[in-house]
What does this fold into?
Amino acid sequence: MSWPRQLLAAVAFIAMGVIFSPESFGSKSDGQISTRLATYLKLAHFLSFSTALGTALWVTFVAVVVMVLNLPRHLFGNLRSKLFPASFILVGICCATSAGSFAYLHPWKSSSTDESSNSGCCCLRLHSISPICLSLDP
It folds into this structure.
């Protein structure tokens, strides 16, 4: 396993730990955390979510169209074999960071229905992208 995949696996396991047991990582069920930490976690959630969304949209709708229209088939396949694993790993790490920071800010026990559904969506994104990233051939 290459180091980006190991990093993704580590970040994903930590994010799952924060999602399912935020108290183990210092989050309080009443939602009281320091404002400085909350600011950094909100920034991490925003940056990682926007990076994941931007990467997925760019690779899916811009890069692939440009490659299909302008590259011969063998070069397209070679470039795709290098581009997609890197983008999947980046999106996976960003989804894990986003899910972990959101779960730390909004513990499951004290969150509202909207926050719980948002945590579920973060977990679903992480669950859907991680197996793809970990099973890609080098």
Summary: The chain has a mean pLDDT of 76. The CA atoms of residues 72 and 78 lie 10 Å apart. The radius of gyration is 17 Å. The chain is about 80% helix and 0% strand.
